């Protein structure tokens, strides 16, 4: 695929929003997330010969999983370079709509709200939460990727869930007060 720029462009344009949405769960400054996505696509195109699909009827699903894995690994590499401290920043509204056109407006809104809450977690909790809950990594895989123990991964996930639950409960309490 390295020698087929037309196909690279089509693949890039089709999956750019998906890749950006994936990276933005880890890198919160829009311009830095765009750089990470572009770095991820460079890796994808340079290693495309490694992509192997044994089930052609599931090609797109398998390709999206591969893209997701590359983007997450590229984002984690960037966080390591920053000592796991993400740069906070906003993301333009159009990116939320572009990122997954198959979702309803309500699903996009809930997803956006979840990501904004996850964004408030301490970095170590946030990364483990993203990898385990949203991206489906096992604690063993997370431990290997981040250089932590499996126990630390499990502990960080429990603490992240507790923080989010507390926030959810306080938001529900505020909504009850406002509706009274």
Explain what the structure shows.
The chain is mainly alpha-helical and 180 residues long. The protein has two domains: 100 residues, Rna Polymerase Sigma Factor, Chain: A (Orthogonal Bundle); 61 residues, Arc Repressor Mutant, subunit A (Orthogonal Bundle), CATH 1.10.10.10. It contains eight helices and no strands. α1 packs across α2, α2 crosses α3 and α7 crosses α8. It starts with a helix and ends with a helix. The model has no long low-confidence stretch (mean pLDDT 81). InterPro entries: RNA_pol_sigma-70-like (IPR039425), RNA_pol_sigma-70_dom (IPR014284), RNA_pol_sigma70_r2 (IPR007627), RNA_pol_sigma70_r4_t2 (IPR013249), RNA_pol_sigma_r2 (IPR013325), RNA_pol_sigma_r3/r4-like (IPR013324), WH-like_DNA-bd_sf (IPR036388). Keywords: DNA-directed RNA polymerase, Sigma factor, Transcription, Transcription regulation. Belongs to the sigma-70 factor family. ECF subfamily. It holds the Pfam family Sigma70_r2.
């Amino acid at each position: 695929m390295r020698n087929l720029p037309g196909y690279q462009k089509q693949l890039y344009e089709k999956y750019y929003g998906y890749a950006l949405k994936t990276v933005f769960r880890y890198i919160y400054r829009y311009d830095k997330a765009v750089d990470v996505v572009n770095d991820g696509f460079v890796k994808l195109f340079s290693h495309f010969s490694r992509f192997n699909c044994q089930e052609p009827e599931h090609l797109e699903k398998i390709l999206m999983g591969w893209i997701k894995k590359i983007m997450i690994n590229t984002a984690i590499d960037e966080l390591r370079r920053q000592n796991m401290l993400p740069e906070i920043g906003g993301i333009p509204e159009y990116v939320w709509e572009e990122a997954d056109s198959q979702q309803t407006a309500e699903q996009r809104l809930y997803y956006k709200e979840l990501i904004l809450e996850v964004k408030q977690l301490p970095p170590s909790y946030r990364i483990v939460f993203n990898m385990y809950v949203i991206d489906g990594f096992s604690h063993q895989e997370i431990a290997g990727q981040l250089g932590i123990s499996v126990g630390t991964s499990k502990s960080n996930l429990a603490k992240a869930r507790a923080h989010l639950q507390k926030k959810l409960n306080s938001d529900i309490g505020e909504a009850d007060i406002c509706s009274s």
